[in-house]
Design a protein that fits this description.
The complex is a heterodimer. Helices cover 33% and strands 28% of the residues of chain A. In chain A, the strands form two sheets. Chain A has a six-stranded mixed beta sheet, with helices on both faces. A four-stranded antiparallel beta sheet of chain A has the order 2-1-4-5, covered by helices on one side. Chain A is an alpha/beta fold. Chain A has one domain: Rossmann fold, CATH 3.40.50. Chain B is α+β, with helices and mostly antiparallel strands. Chain B folds into two domains: 177 residues, no CATH class; 170 residues, no CATH class. Helices cover 56% and strands 17% of the residues of chain B. Chain B has 13 helices and ten strands. Chain B is elongated and about 110 Å long. The two termini of chain B are 31 Å apart. The chains are: A alpha/beta, B alpha+beta. Chains A and B meet through helix 2, helix 3 and helix 4 of A and helix 1, helix 10, helix 11 and helix 13 of B.
């Protein structure tokens, strides 16, 4: 599914100053895996995420997604690939404040080649995250957890194979975090490849594989120890997903 | 829900949220379109007025008037050089002359009927004036060859004269006095309205040429010679030929002013063009300045908007918008703004034109042209103004834009 081979990435941070963000990262992620990339800030995990999402290009090394070498694709082809194969979830949600939940979810369909029935598809995506009843609310009228679930619905609406979530619970409290993680857990259970970046061990504990980065290199890659289920955690918190 | 409609709805909502800014973006374009509509309305109105005047003058008619080209009205009566020999020379020497009449005209003549009097212009001419000037009878009869041969004291009245002297009574058979002579009214001329020079062509009294020359004014020269031209003959060429011929016949040295002027559809069009040119130039400059300023304001505001909307651009790029599609989006948004501004301008401009038409004598006319031109102009301004901001939006650094 995802194959990285010796990925290097440098950034210029000023005149003459460079940061080596990634120093030869190689890893393979199979379809349906639920993976956490962990590490302290500055370890290169966000850079790795941006490269996985094709928002950034590596200086060297190869990235194959579904067997296709991403390096050879131009902007148009990369955009199409992001639209069809990758769904993004961001720490700060990044919803359009002027658009309703459903309109935000519909956004990727504006760029899809066969958008089909936009209303129907965006409604189904909202259903998956349990927010159909909030379809016409603006982001400002939703809680943080709800906003992040709308963002997940937006990531899902084109039915991509891969969901990339960069600190998806970074701005959320424990309960909302468990809600969001439960949704991601469900998606992984349904065969989506879910990769999330986090620096919280509690969050990583919900995944099945933890890749630890330090100074731009993979330092460990292990199955999750003391694995927890976000669903069960929610049940333990004693309430339903919907607030 | 359709994808295009959704895109448009989000774009319009963006405009609605920043109303002051949106109004500012639209105002420049709106002012430009208002002046554009005014320019065309005034030009078109003047053109129509002139065309109407030319129709009443006769689009195929040429009139040689005694007196320098500055002379207004029916000729300078002190100028005695326009003669029967000139008329014969034109008739035989200028190709395409269909019908030609001499006219002796005197303006500011007092005409009396009973205890009423009015001031009018007397036209003494031959019966051919009917054909040469479409001077038909509305009632009664016109001047005949017999009247001409006998120096008859008969007159045909224009409708303004009839109204001034007789009100609603039938004037035919009644008597008027011109100078110290009495004339029998034999007919009333059809209304001809206002001349291109702004004269009331119904405030006229027609008498036989012989009567006018010998009994009334004692002259052996004409005030005007009018002829109609075969449509196949070039008017401009004919005017030049007549001009050259008369200058030679009147022995006018090169550099000296003509002692006659030639009026035709061509000269009226030239006059009108001169009048509207100044106004068109002025309004045209305002249009250009307003549209230019509008485009500049729009480009600046859009540039600010692009940096404010970095996150939105980043999200759109992340969910599958290519650089081309981002460029397209901002171009469309810019064009939507200018089209809205253009529509406001069209509404205001049309309102102004309608107000001018009902409140002033200014010749204005609405036509489809400024609407079509306005639409094209607004789209062009929108694209030009949005081009750089749109390119800037497309090259937004996505990774930075999406960083929390």
């Amino acid at each position: 599914m995802i194959q990285l081979q010796d990925i290097q990435k440098k950034y210029r941070t000023g005149p003459g100053a460079e940061v080596q963000a990634l120093r030869g990262v190689s890893l393979t992620i199979e379809q349906g895996e639920f993976v956490a990339i962990m590490g302290p800030s500055g370890c290169g995990k966000s850079t790795l995420m941006n490269i996985l999402g094709t928002l950034d290009r590596p200086d060297s090394g190869s990235y194959r997604l579904h067997g296709d070498d991403v390096a050879g694709l131009d902007d148009k082809a990369l955009s199409k690939l992001r639209n069809r194969r990758i769904g993004f979830v961001f720490q700060s949600f990044n919803l359009l404040p002027l658009a309703s939940a459903q309109e935000n979810v519909s956004l990727p369909l504006l760029y899809a080649q066969a958008p089909g029935d936009v209303g129907e598809r965006s409604r189904k995506a909202l259903e998956l995250v349990g927010l159909v009843d909030r379809a016409h609310h603006r982001p400002g009228e939703l809680s943080g957890g709800q906003q992040q679930r709308v963002a997940i619905a937006r990531a899902l609406v084109t039915d991509p194979e891969v969901i990339l979530a960069d600190e998806p619970t970074g701005n959320l409290d424990t309960r909302a975090s468990a809600e969001v993680m439960a949704v991601l857990e469900d998606l992984a259970g349904k065969g989506k490849t879910v990769v999330l970046v986090t620096h919280e061990p509690d969050i990583a504990a919900y995944t099945r594989r933890v890749i630890a980065l330090r100074d731009g290199q993979v330092v460990s890659d292990t199955p999750t120890s003391e694995r927890k289920s976000a669903r069960q955690e929610l049940d333990r918190l004693g309430k339903e997903v919907t607030p | 829900m359709n994808a295009l409609r959704l895109a448009l709805r989000i774009a319009l909502r963006n405009l609605g949220v920043r109303k002051g800014r949106s109004a500012l973006m639209m105002s420049g374009v709106a002012v430009g379109i208002v002046t554009l509509i005014l320019v065309t309305a005034v030009t078109e109105g003047t053109r129509k007025k002139v065309e109407k005047g030319i129709q009443s003058f006769g689009p195929d008619a040429v009139m040689v008037v005694a007196g320098s080209p500055q002379t207004r009205g029916p000729g300078d009566e002190r100028v005695s050089t326009l003669t029967a020999q000139d008329l014969d020379a034109i008739r035989s020497g200028i190709p395409g002359v269909r019908v030609i009449v001499p006219i002796v005209a005197r303006s500011a003549q007092t005409v009396i009927a009973g205890d009423r009097n009015t001031t009018t212009t007397v036209f003494a001419s031959t019966p051919e004036i009917e054909e040469a000037w479409d001077q038909h009878a509305e009632s009664g009869e016109l001047i005949s060859e017999a009247h001409e041969a006998s120096l008859a004291r008969v007159a045909v009245l224009g409708k303004t004269v009839v109204r001034d002297l007789f009100g609603t009574d039938d004037p035919i058979g009644q008597t008027i006095r011109l100078g110290d002579q009495k004339f029998k009214i034999i007919g009333v001329a059809q209304s001809k309205g206002t001349s291109p020079m702004g004269m009331d062509m119904d405030n006229r009294v027609f008498v036989p040429l012989s009567t006018g020359m010998r009994r009334l004014y004692n002259v052996d020269y004409y005030s005007m010679i009018r002829f109609r031209l075969d449509p196949a003959v070039d008017m401009q060429r004919t005017v030049e030929q007549v001009n050259a011929m008369l200058r030679q016949r009147h022995s006018i040295g090169s550099g000296d002013t003509d002692d006659f002027s030639i009026r035709s559809a061509i000269s009226f069009r030239q006059m009108a063009a001169k009048m509207s040119r100044t106004l068109t130039l002025l309004l045209g400059i305002i249009t250009l300045v307003a549209l230019g300023a509008g485009a500049l304001v729009l480009a600046n505001i859009l540039t600010v908007a692009v940096s404010e909307r970095r996150v939105e651009i980043g999200v759109r790029r992340a969910v599958g918008a290519s650089r081309g599609q981002i460029t397209q989006q901002f171009l469309i948004e810019g064009v939507v703004v200018t089209i809205l501004g253009g529509l406001i301008g069209i509404a205001l401009g049309t309102g102004t034109v309608l107000a001018l038409r009902s409140a002033t004598e200014m010749p204005v006319a609405l036509s489809w042209l400024p609407f079509a031109a306005g639409l094209v102009v607004t789209i062009v301004v929108g694209i030009v103004a949005s081009w750089l901001p749109a390119r800037r939006a497309a090259s937004t650094d996505v990774v930075n834009a999406l960083r929390p």
